Amino acid sequence: MILVGDPQNKALSESIAQNLSCELIYPNIFIFPDSEQRIKLDPDKILGQKVYILKSCNMPIDADTMQLAFLIDAAVRAGADKVIGIVPYLSYMRADHVFRTGEASPLEIVIKLIEAAGLNEIIIVDPHSIKIPEMFKIGVKSLSALSLFAQKINEIEPNKENITIVAPDMGGLRRIGQIDQLLGGSINKVTINKDRDYNSGAVKVAEYKGEIRGRCFIVDDIISTGKTILQAVEVLTDNGAEEVYVLATHPVFSKGSNKLLSDSKVKKIYVTNSIPVSDSESYEKLGILSISGLIAESITNG
Ligand code: R5P
To answer: Does the CB atom of residue 221 touch ligand 1 within 6 A?
Structure first.
């Protein structure tokens, strides 16, 4: 077994390799002036090996998605016995179906691309919807950071009576149900009904269901512009929350989101290292939880 690390996420690459006690190599990547990429793996390291490729497809989304496909192709051509992608953040997960007639279906195309490149199996983390694993023809292991979030909630507030778990939109209902189970059940829950304008991307909170009280923990899969979280934090603080915390798996953090969230009334935001956050993008309220153990454990358990 060998791990091809993600040069953009060296800390996670090293930690997974250490947890698995396996060799870690990095691809040789050359970016041409027009932004085309040349990807090379050392064939001596790859031939006959079970090759794990770690690559989150974040920013720039399309370049990273192509890089993942090229890495898979390079591993196949170098004679890998099996190629397994560890893709903590898969691009276009929110575009998992056609929303309006005439639109493309981006996630279907991304999946076709990486499968056609020769991927044999894939490990993903907190896919946006439960149908995503079923969209693949190859084997999918779908991991979740929710256990890390439940642990963190317990650490912050051991008194379950004082916890409210919050879905910032209807899509988050399943997630708060799972967190509830991990926390032992019967936890107070609030669901916010968010409206997003498909054209402008603007987020509008329509209403909320449930009783807002105690320490509130918003659980989400992705933070991109930060607008969903911001709106939810405002609803909660305006309606009786003692403190508001956020736990979200993928810190996509589009430009401007950090200032928005750092200036908000949120107490603390926890995200995972599925996508690296540089020191310059970080801020005091931000905490990072590592998914390295989850990934290594799932590989060890086969
Ligand atoms: C939406 O369905 C997702 O679960 C997230 O809530 C959303 O992608 C967050 O996006 P943003 O930070 O841009 O509001």
So the answer is: yes
Query: pTM for this one?
Result: 0.95
Alpha carbon of 188 to ligand 1 centroid (Å): 23
Q: How far is the CA of 279 from the centre of ligand 1 (A)?
A: 23
* Ligand 1 neighbourhood includes 171 CB (under 6 angstroms): yes
User: Can you give the CATH number for the domain in which 93 is found?
Assistant: 3.40.50.2020
Ligand 1 pocket residue status of 126, Cβ below 6 Å: no
- Is there a domain that residue 204 lies in? yes
Closest C-alpha to ligand 1, atom 10: 224
Q: What is the C-alpha to C-alpha distance for residues 114 and 238, in angstroms, rounded to an integer?
A: 45
75 and 102 assigned to the same domain: yes
Question: 12 and 132 share a domain?
Answer: yes
> Phi and psi at residue 151, in whole multiples of 5°?
-60, -45
Tell me the pLDDT tens digit for each residue of 88-138.
Answer: 999 999 999 999 999 999 999 999 999 999 999 999 999 999 999 999 999
- 204 and 131 within one domain: no
Distances (CA, A) of 49 to 1, 4, 22, 79, 97: 6, 11, 12, 8, 35
Beta-bridge mates of residue 63: none
| Whether residue 148 has its Cβ less than 6 Å from ligand 1 | no
